[in-house]
Amino acid sequence: MADFLVISTGGTIASRPGTMGLTPSMPGEELLASLDGIGKYGAVTILDLFSKDSSNMSPEDWKMIAACLKAEEKEYDGFLILHGTDTMAYSASALSFFLPGFSKPVVITGSMFPMGEPGSDAESNVREAFAFLAALAREGRTGVSVAFHGRLIHGPRSQKILSHDTTAFSSINYPELGHFTNGKAVLGEAPYLAPAYPVDVSSLQVETSIFLVTLFPGFRARFLDHLADAEPKAIVLEALGLGGVPYLGENLLDPIARFREKNIPVVITTQCVYGGVDLSVYEVGKRTLSLGAISGKDMTREAIIAKLMITLPVCGTECLEELLHENFCDEISPPPQG
Description:
Helix 3 runs parallel beside helix 8 and helix 5 runs parallel beside helix 6. The chain is 28% helix and 23% strand. By secondary structure, the chain is an alpha/beta fold. The termini are far apart. The strands form 4 sheets. An 8-stranded mixed sheet has the order 4-1-5-6-7-8-11-12, with helices on both faces. It has a 4-stranded parallel sheet with strand order 13-14-15-16. The chain has 9 helices and 16 strands. The radius of gyration is 21 Å and the shape is globular. It folds into 2 domains: 3-187, Rossmann fold, CATH 3.40.50.1170; 210-325, Rossmann fold (3-Layer(aba) Sandwich), CATH 3.40.50. The chain has helices spanning 28-33, 59-72, 88-98, 122-138, 221-229, 253-261, 283-290, 301-315, 320-324; strands at residues 3-10, 15-18, 21-24, 43-52, 78-82, 105-109, 143-148, 151-154, 158-160, 169-171, 178-181, 184-187, 210-214, 234-239, 266-270, 294-295.
């Protein structure tokens, strides 16, 4: 019989009404108490690691989860993390980068409504997550994934796209890893997972001095100049469409040039959910490339931020573009062949 560890971290799934609204306060034992039948998947151990609204989670919490997984890796056949939905995609991306070569499957789930609330999706999400986890363990698969509303999504490709609906999560620019149908977890093709990463992440160091800026028509160039004065370690620009950055009127290329003069990397991504960026198509994108900006390609916002956090402490800016474009765990699509 398989052995699974459930790591409870709080979130809506563990919340009760409080004086200021829903607050995570339900321990893991209580969360799973009403779920008859999960024992058919294996022996279940529950660990309450912490209890937070995921909006309050930080990279220190990701490190705590990663350290816990590493410490228990040999003791269990798989791991289920109960987590809030608001930053679930960030955690899924970060853990994917923190755990190269991890030998067991990790599934993250949560809910849009608290466990026990009438009509809540909590019970079905947890049951389906157990089914996915057991199937992954049986097939010897690894990696970090998100189980939500009957779908299994690759961790660094997950994104919350709906704020108040049980179909909250989507797989971005990547096939779903599985689906739950007729009471069974059906797995699709496994993702590529590099056995080792080109950088040493064993120390779990993170760099959080990163700005994320969304551009819009009329955005003032001087605001970017002020950000350059703050000397962040990197800036991510959510540009327009395929990666367009305005240069007529308010010229946003000049601040990008100043960032590069200060050796501050600039990563260009898109405000569009699907499709990614291609800076070689339009002049408004190509000009950023000529200034040394880095394409975020088809990575999610969450994957870009997490990847920057773990690569900046070990490589600085010298080899950053090469590392961002290297495929660690199918967080980025390879360039087309031919």
